[in-house]
C-alpha cells in the first residue's frame, strides 16, 4: 500500500449515491451465518455527503499525520449512531489502520492534528438503500484524498470488504453483479438512464430480521439474473421492469404487509415494474422517463412517508469540492 504523501486539500466534500437491487437471489446460508447472494446493484441519485477537514497547524505537515485524531459529527438523523459505531467512523479507522495515519501516540503534544468529519444524510436509514455502506465508502474516498494516502480504488475496496457486504460496491458505484456475501463485484455493461419513483417509509426494517424471515417463508426456487442483465445491456426499460426480482421481497411483505399495497399502487399508477429494494422497506417503481416518474410520484405520494424521483445509474462517490 502507498505511504503518506504531501498535502493536497485542507477540506474535501464527497457526495455518495444510494443503491437499489435490480435483482437479488439468496443462494444459501454459510456456516458463519452470512448468506450467499447473487445480486445486480445499481446506484441511484439520492445522496449523502461527507465533509472532511484538517484542523490545526500541525495538520499541514504530512509527517504529523501519524498523530492524527478524528472527530465525527452528523446532522441529527433518527437511527444513525454518532459514535464510533457509525460506519463512516469505522471506515476512517480502517483507513487509518491500513495506512499508519493516527498510529502514533502523541501523549503530551500540545499541537495535535485533527480531522473533522461531518455527515449529512438524505439516504433513508435502514431502508434497503445501503445508506451506511455508502457513508463508509464516502469516508474512505474523502480521507484518502484529504490525507493524501493515495490508495487506489481496489485497495479501498479491500478495506471496504471488512466493513460490510455492500461497501465495496459503494466504493466503485455504477452497476455491478455481486456474488459471495456481496463483496465480490463485477461491473455490468449498461445502457441508458433509468427513472425511478422511490417510496420511502419512516419505519425502518432491520436487514437481519428480513433475512431471518426469509429463512422461514422462502420457497426452493432459484432465480437467475440473465433477463435483468440483458435488459441493462440493451437499455430496455420495459424489459427491465418486467425482470426486476428480489428474493427478500416475500420476507419484507411478511413483516410489513402494508408494503404489498405500496407496490400495487406503483404498478396501478403505471410503473413498468416495482420491487422492494434490498431488505426494504423502500419500494422502487421503474418509469419510462423522468416525466413519467414525476407523474407516478404525484399519484402515489399519499401512500408513503416520502416519495422521491431518482435516476440510475448514478456513478460512485465523487469529490464535489476541495
Ligand atoms: P443495507 O441495505 O446495506 O442492509 P440499509 O440501507 O438497510 O442497509 P442502513 O441505512 O445502512 O440500512 O442502516 C442500517 C443500520 O446501520 C442503522 O439502523 C444504523 O444503526 C447503522 N448505521 C451505522 N452507520 C450508519 C450510517 N452512516 N448511516 C445509516 N445507518 C448507519
Describe the protein's architecture and organization.
This protein folds into two domains: 8-183, Ribosomal Protein S5, domain 2 (2-Layer Sandwich), CATH 3.30.230.10; 194-312, Alpha-Beta Plaits. With 322 residues, it is α+β, with helices and mostly antiparallel strands. The protein is elongated. The relative contact order is 0.20. A hairpin with a 6-residue loop joins strand 9 (273-276) and strand 10. The protein contains ten helices and twelve strands. Residues 1-8 have low confidence and may be disordered. The structure holds adenosine-5'-triphosphate. Adenosine-5'-triphosphate (ATP) is lined by residues 79-81, 86-88, 125-133, 135, 166, 207, 278-279. Adenosine-5'-triphosphate (ATP) binds next to helix 1 and helix 2.
DSSP E strands, number:
12
- The overall average pLDDT, rounded, is 93
CATH topology-level fold name of the largest domain? Ribosomal Protein S5, domain 2
Hey, roughly how much beta strand do the residues contain?
25-35%
Assembly state: single chain
Give the second-level CATH assignment, the architecture of the largest domain.
2-Layer Sandwich
Order of helices and strands: EEEHEHHHEEEHHHEHHEEHEE
Name the shape in a single word: elongated
What is the radius of gyration computed over CA atoms, rounded to a whole number of angstroms?
Answer: 20 Å
List keywords for this structure.
10 helices; Alpha-Beta Plaits; binds adenosine-5'-triphosphate; Ribosomal Protein S5, domain 2; alpha+beta; four-stranded antiparallel beta sheet; 322 residues; elongated
Amino acid at each position: 500500500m502507498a505511504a503518506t504523501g504531501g498535502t493536497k486539500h485542507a477540506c474535501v466534500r464527497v457526495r455518495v449515491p444510494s443503491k437499489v437491487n435490480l435483482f437479488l437471489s439468496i443462494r444459501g446460508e454459510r456456516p458463519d451465518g452470512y448468506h450467499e447472494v447473487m445480486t445486480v446493484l445499481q446506484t441511484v441519485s439520492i445522496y449523502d455527503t461527507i465533509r472532511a477537514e484538517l484542523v490545526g497547524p500541525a495538520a499541514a505537515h504530512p509527517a504529523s499525520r501519524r498523530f492524527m485524531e478524528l472527530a465525527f459529527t452528523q446532522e441529527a438523523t433518527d437511527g444513525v449512531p454518532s459514535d464510533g459505531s457509525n460506519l463512516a467512523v469505522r471506515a476512517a479507522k480502517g483507513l487509518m489502520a491500513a495506512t499508519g495515519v493516527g498510529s502514533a501516540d502523541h501523549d503530551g503534544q500540545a499541537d495535535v492534528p485533527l480531522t473533522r468529519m461531518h455527515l449529512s444524510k438524505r439516504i433513508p436509514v435502514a431502508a434497503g438503500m445501503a445508506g451506511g455502506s455508502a457513508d463508509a465508502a464516502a469516508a474512505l474516498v474523502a480521507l484518502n484524498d484529504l490525507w493524501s494516502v493515495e490508495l487506489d480504488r481496489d485497495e479501498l475496496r479491500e478495506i471496504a470488504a471488512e466493513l460490510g457486504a455492500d461497501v465495496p460496491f459503494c466504493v466503485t458505484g455504477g452497476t455491478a453483479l455481486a456474488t459471495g456475501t456481496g463483496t465480490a463485484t463485477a461491473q455490468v455493461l449498461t445502457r441508458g438512464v433509468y427513472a425511478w419513483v422511490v417510496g420511502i417509509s419512516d419505519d425502518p426494517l432491520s436487514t437481519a430480521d428480513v433475512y431471518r424471515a426469509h429463512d422461514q417463508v422462502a420457497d426452493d426456487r432459484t432465480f437467475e439474473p440473465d433477463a435483468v442483465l440483458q435488459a441493462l445491456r440493451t437499455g430496455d426499460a420495459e424489459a427491465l421492469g418486467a425482470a426486476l426480482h428480489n428474493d427478500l421481497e416475500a420476507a419484507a411483505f411478511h413483516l410489513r404487509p402494508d408494503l404489498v399495497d405500496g407496490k400495487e399502487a406503483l404498478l396501478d399508477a403505471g410503473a413498468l415494474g416495482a420491487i422492494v429494494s434490498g431488505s426494504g422497506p423502500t419500494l422502487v417503481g421503474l418509469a419510462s422517463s423522468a416525466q413519467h416518474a414525476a407523474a407516478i410520484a404525484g399519484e402515489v405520494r399519499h401512500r408513503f412517508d416520502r416519495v422521491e424521483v431518482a435516476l440510475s445509474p448514478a456513478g460512485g462517490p465523487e469529490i464535489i469540492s476541495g
